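Sequence only, no structure available. Ideas?
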Amino acid sequence: MRPEAPRTALTRAALTLALIASVLPLAAFKPFSAVRDACPRCAPFADVVRLAAGGELVAHVMAQNLDALIVERFGEYRALQRAEVAEIVWQRNERRNLPSHDQVVLKNGVVLHGTIVKDNRDGYFVIKVGALEHVAWASEIENVYREGRPQPVNGPVPAAGVPASPEGPSPAPSSGSGAGGPVEVR
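Reply:
I predicted one. Tokens follow.
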């Protein structure tokens, strides 16, 4: 066996896995990293998002865009499609006005939430999150939102200046709930 054969086999395996992963469905919520609750009997430390399919997600609802709510748990951000949400119970019953900042949703489910400082004319986005700037290649991006509005991933992104509050469904109080319907807030 040549010395390069194991490296070639590993490269082929990695490419095969990447190809398989690229065709998997990308719309569903990607779970947070597994972390055990230190006090499962304590009151929730964050908002409680009741899912339309059943179950609950304890996380801070941080922002919104036309398609999803952005939730954060232990420093990880995820996009939760509005159709997946049945109800939100706010921590301390304080409904917050959700901002609609820029978001880059990666294909692995991670959300970069901040301000887009460079668009994809060169095949990538740069988004400033706090004091850090993250680079996201267009091939790794599922969706891009500027001030809550969807933007093209493949092509120039319009400059900032669209209205800050997106139109469409919002997590405002309503009498209905369920998949695809209004989100009920208590």
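Residues 48-172 form a domain with the SH3 type barrels. fold (CATH 2.30.30.100).
Hope that gets you unstuck.
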